[in-house]
Design brief:
About 45% of the residues are buried. The strands form seven sheets. Strands 3-2-1-4-5 form a five-stranded parallel beta sheet, with helices on both faces. A five-stranded antiparallel beta sheet has the order 12-15-18-23-20, sandwiched between helices. The chain has a four-stranded antiparallel beta sheet with strand order 6-9-7-8, with helices on both faces. It is built from 13 helices and 24 strands. By secondary structure, it is an alpha+beta fold. The two termini are about 40 Å apart. Helices cover about 30% and strands about 25% of the residues.
Length: about 450
Amino acid sequence: MGTHLPSSRSLNRLENILIIGNGGRENSLAWAIQKNELVKKVYLIPGNAGSERIKKCERINIDINNKNELVEKLNFCKIDLVVIGPEIPLSNGLADFLRKKDFKVFGPNKDGAKLEYSKSWAKEFMKEANIPTAKFWKVNSLEEAKKIINSSLTPLVVKADGLASGKGVFIPNSKDECIKAAETIFSGRFGNSGNVVVLEEKIRGPEVSVFALCDGKRYTLLPTAQDHKRLNEKDKGPNTGGMGAYSPAPLLTQDSLDRIIKQIIEPTINELNKRNIDYRGVIYFGLMITKSGPKVIEYNCRFGDPECQTIMPLMDQNFVFLLEKCSMGSLTGFEKINTSHKVSGCVIATSKGYPHKYKTGYQIKIGKIDSNDCQIFDSGTSFSENGELLTAGGRVLSIVCQDKDFDMVFEKAYKNLKEIHFEGIYFRNDIGHQVRKNFFKEN
């Protein structure tokens, strides 16, 4: 059973969509949304160099913090639905502002975004709602952190409380490394995001991402995904925003998903309601499947990147209706998402030096790409004055493919990567190793 097309669209026009953000996630959302025949135009603020390669898409170059200009532009473009991609505008209350101006918005208000922008608040939230998560301590000083680290039998996970683009989480192997991580955060590397530190017991097991589209009361689930956060192969090196992903995650059986729904997803939405938080957007559940069952590692208040790039090609043309229903509080709770019967994988090409210091402005040359069930979503690109495609971020391109099995998916993705060249290009060769049968034969 697929998502039902509304019997009449005359009441809710859905011609002009605005996406806020400039990464691979936003380009993949634009690509999925434009598939719907009712959609005439997808605007991106600001988008990036790859946005204009997507059908029906146009970039708008204005500052979203200039609220008057933003509203003027949205009215001029007759925007029917705003989709906010990144966590920072959500944390700054952009959704609240636009809703007050009578725009339909997919993305939580500031109170809901707190699930992501304060890890300590999210941990207290889980504790209150009896949602399974690792034991934690909230600390306000290095001295306090040292005391807890030294009294722990095993090394603890060290996290900056606020937003740090996926780079504020440290998984040390010794107490000395724990103290160094706490020093790094308290020394100001992440600005105000590091004023508070969360220490957590280390839990073990594979990680999986679950996405719930929520209208404030009801929800519907997207396909599951697994991403690769560490920079280097064999899951070594520093944490990044994400080096690749695949979907769906075979690790999750229907039984384990039912358990996650009962113990984590529904209690989260119930607790939001209890606190009068009208959450209209996606809730990303970053989970670890431990021996004692699933536990929440983190919440995000937006689509994960690169999971979003991986999942969007599996969506049918009705995906945009789900976003609209969430924005209006009108999900029935019985929507079934018609997904492709294929599986999907994504490999991220990054700049040399990411997630630390890296240079940008290198020309990108793209050769002969297999475009059959394959996409390239630009993550960090720009144009030179004479129209050359340039690197403009740590994560540069998202190379995404679909096929009937993961071996075929990643064979195509890595074949396409051989056709992409820029100075210092770096990517992991083992993305999806858990699900690539041939990977172990070859390695």
